[in-house]
Specification:
Layout (H helix, E strand, L loop, with lengths): L1 H17 L4 E2 H7 L1 H4 L4 H17 L5 E4 L5 E4 L14 H13 L3 H17 L25 H10 L3 E5 L8 E13 L2 E8 L4 E6 L3 E7 L14 H8 L6 E8 L4 H6 L2 E6 L2 E8 L3 H6 L5 E5 L1 H16 L1
Antiparallel strand pairs: 1-3, 2-3, 4-5, 4-8, 5-6, 6-7, 9-11, 9-12, 10-11
Helix pairs in contact: 1-4, 5-6
Length: 317
């Protein structure tokens, strides 16, 4: 079965690379034996769509062209599928090998393994361990959110998506229509940056707050994708990382370890409470709400008022 599929993919790639004009699905079916033997049009269509997606996943640039009669054709231009020679020294190849081995998730493991094989061909010696002097340290990027994979593919393919999103201050999720730009991991959490169509502005979403399935939508992006997407900087500013002031809070003993890690001063109050001084910047109120009854804001007054307002909004639902 694997050999038959590999042969079918190779024949399809050769047809698309060898043509000077777009070939219709009908012409491709007549040119490839496996497609001729397909039992029905539905069976052929499913097989062709899978094969086309597999070739694109392997890196083949396949263009879809519509002629004057409205018939859709496919071709892979040679100039779009030709890369200049890649030369890597041992250090560059080892660095790329280390980056490829970071990904351990099921969906990405195959792609990373294939990338390592290509790196071997490009100059990474067989006896070079990509981990090198890192010893027992093995880098990994954990991905537990089900939304990661569909969002990663949507970012790659520039496809709009819709999903249900629950804000920290909301009792129920609400639909968000987003043009996804980039995914980035910060402080152990994954975030998506993109254009929120409903709000007409750039937004950053924490993947752990996405509920249900991520569904793709047709059409193109309506907003220009920036050259640089500052996910970490945006999230850091919301979390108070760019703070120029301090806030004083009470925190239950043995609770709120992320807050304790940020504290510039800690004082034991007794009776199960500690007093912490933490950096105060934009978005700190939303972060403090997540700790619920374990946190009491002492000062400044405006931060305390913001936290109380958010808690009341959650209580009202």
């Amino acid at each position: 079965m694997a050999i038959a599929k590999a042969e079918r993919l190779m024949n399809l790639a050769l047809c698309l690379l060898g043509t000077r004009r777009p070939l219709s699905k009908r012409e491709l079916r007549e040119s490839i034996e496996a497609y001729v033997e397909a039992g029905s049009d539905d069976s052929f269509n499913r097989m062709f769509e899978r094969d086309k997606d597999d070739l694109r996943e392997l890196g083949l640039v396949i263009e879809t062209v519509e002629n004057l009669d409205g018939e859709v054709g496919y071709l892979a231009r040679r100039d779009s599928n030709r890369l200049p020679p890649i030369t890597l020294d041992a250090e560059e190849a080892a660095a790329l090998g280390l980056a490829a081995k970071v990904w351990q998730q099921a969906r990405l493991a195959g792609a990373a393994s294939g990338a390592l094989q290509k790196l071997r061909a490009a100059g990474l010696p067989e006896d070079v361990d990509p981990y090198g002097a890192h010893g027992a340290l093995e880098p990994r990027i954990p991905v537990h959110e089900a939304a990661f994979e569909p969002l990663m593919l949507a970012c790659r393919d520039r496809r709009p998506v819709v999903f249900e999103y629950r804000k920290a201050t909301a009792a129920r999720p609400e639909p968000r229509h987003v043009e996804p730009w980039a995914l980035e991991c910060w402080r152990g959490h994954w975030y998506l940056a993109g254009w929120d169509r409903d709000r007409g502005a750039e937004r950053v979403f924490r993947l752990s707050r996405i509920t249900g399935k991520v569904r793709s939508r047709g059409g193109r992006f309506t907003a220009e994708v920036p050259d640089v997407v500052t996910v970490r900087e945006t999230v850091a500013s919301w979390a108070g990382e760019t703070a120029d002031r301090s806030a004083l809070i009470r925190l239950r003993t043995d609770a709120g370890y992320p807050l304790r890690a940020k504290a510039t001063a800690v004082r034991e109050l007794g009776d199960g409470w500690d007093e912490l001084e933490i950096p105060y910047g934009h978005g700190l109120d939303a972060w403090l709400v997540e700790f619920g009854p374990d946190v009491v804001v002492l000062e400044p007054a405006e931060l305390r008022a913001d936290v109380v307002d958010r808690l009341r909004a959650v209580a009202k639902g």
